[in-house]
Specification:
Length: 427
């Protein structure tokens, strides 16, 4: 009887993934020549890999779905599926309908968005055609003004949150990256600037594909001028602070965040304070979180736990060991990571060997260990062992467990489950 080892199966899966990546890259090169010229082959391939991860995470497996996700990454930005300014992907990504139905719904919504944004044009190229091909480098003042205009045209919703001097700071970083690639056009700098702002300044270097905003001027803009905008824009700024800015980078803005929270408490501002944990916010946070308006809000409870309410903290950490629903486990792990206290992080570390598996029949299987690792990575964004892209083998899980032993003194009484990351159908 012929037997195929797990190592052979893994090698086969990796070979299939590599061939798919190459086909998608060749498709991108032939279909999107302008992004290829702007980004260069290395960055374009990185964007292909990022789109492949998003496709799998959203439980799509067909090659045409991979091509659609690649188009959306190039056309709408690397965070198109989480961008509050883009409503159209949500319904198709949230439904549990068969893949063919979800694909048709998402493709139709993408076509309608493209037509509305730039009538008569399709694909990623429409965003880049707005820009001049070059600008005289000798006129730096005009160059900077034109760069800001280009960035505003590329991401108008996000550009409204950030003042021009912050874009100028990004342009300097973009110019440095462009110089490394022998780029001289304004277009290249503008696109890089927009990518930096959309997904963090580490886009071209971070193995995860970028989810960290480190630039002090951008952070200052998001904690200052952006919070003075209307409710939707303000909430987007707070969401960016919570998702992309490390807690250490929020520390200098403790007073500003506290004062803003006292005036306009929202679910997003509770989460930002839970992440930053500024001491001045402790008293007003506890007072506001226990009012009738907020006492049952999950974000307010997360913030209370982050500020030391042990009873509330246990309501998140205790169920982690017994919960059997992978979806509920993922939600609880994510929220426990947002609490970010030593107790919460130790509770997460204890679940690094969870045997739970999220499965969509005939579509994908995914280890719930990835949810634990993502929650830990939220608190340790610079730790390579926790980078999602690095979880590719048993050695990767070894590295995660070694980190947990060093950081939390974690120990496990049960054996590690069989290797699994994301496995598309057929299993």
């Amino acid at each position: 009887m012929l037997r195929i080892s797990e190592q052979q199966m893994q090698a086969q899966r990796e070979a299939l993934q590599a061939r798919l990546e190459n086909r998608l890259y060749e498709h991108a090169c032939s279909t999107y020549p302008i992004p290829l010229r702007l980004f260069g082959p290395d960055c374009l391939r990185q964007l292909v890999r990022l789109s492949m991860r998003k496709t799998t995470q959203c439980a799509f497996i067909s090659e045409e779905a991979h091509r659609l996700f690649l188009r959306l990454v190039l056309e709408c930005g690397v965070e198109f599926d989480n961008d509050p300014a883009l409503a159209f992907p949500g319904p198709a990504l949230a439904t549990r309908a068969p893949e063919r139905q979800r694909f048709a719904q998402l493709a139709s919504a993408a076509d309608q968005y493209s037509a509305k944004t730039e009538p008569g044009m399709r694909g990623a190229a429409f965003r880049f055609r707005k820009f001049p091909t070059a600008w005289p480098a000798s006129d730096q003042h005009q160059y900077a003004k034109e760069l800001v205009r280009c960035c505003g045209a590329l991401f108008p919703e996000k550009a409204s949150l950030v003042p021009n001097d912050a874009w100028t700071s990004l342009s300097a970083k973009a110019a440095a990256e462009a110089a490394k690639r022998a780029w001289r056009s304004l277009t290249a700098h503008a696109v890089l600037s927009a990518l930096f702002f959309s997904a963090g300044c580490g886009l071209l270097a971070d193995p995860r594909g970028a989810a960290i905003l480190r630039d002090p001027q951008i952070i200052a803009a998001l904690t200052g001028p952006a919070l003075a905008f209307n409710e939707a824009a303000r909430d987007e700024a707070l969401t960016a602070l919570h998702e992309f800015v490390p807690a250490s980078s929020l520390a200098p803005h403790a007073e500003t965040l506290t004062a803003d929270f006292e005036k306009f408490p929202t679910s997003s501002s509770f989460l930002v304070l839970a992440k930053a944990k500024p001491a001045p916010a402790g008293i007003p946070l506890r007072k506001i979180a226990t009012t009738p308006r907020w006492k049952d809000d999950s974000s307010a409870r997360i913030a209370l736990a982050a500020y030391g309410d042990q009873a509330v903290e246990r309501s998140f950490t205790d169920p982690l060991a017994s919960i059997q629903d992978p979806r509920e486990f993922a939600r609880l792990a994510r929220q426990t990571g947002w609490i970010g206290t030593p107790t919460a992080l130790r509770a997460l570390a204890d679940q690094v060997r969870t045997s739970l598996i999220f499965e969509i029949p005939n579509a994908v299987k995914r280890s719930s260990r990835l949810d634990v690792i993502a929650a830990l990575s939220f608190n340790f964004p610079e730790e390579p062992a926790l980078f999602a892209n690095n979880i590719t083998s048993e050695q990767s899980y070894d590295d995660v467990e070694s980190f947990c032993r060093r950081q939390f003194g974690a120990k496990w009484s049960k054996p590690r489950p069989p290797f699994l990351v994301n496995q598309p159908f057929p299993f």
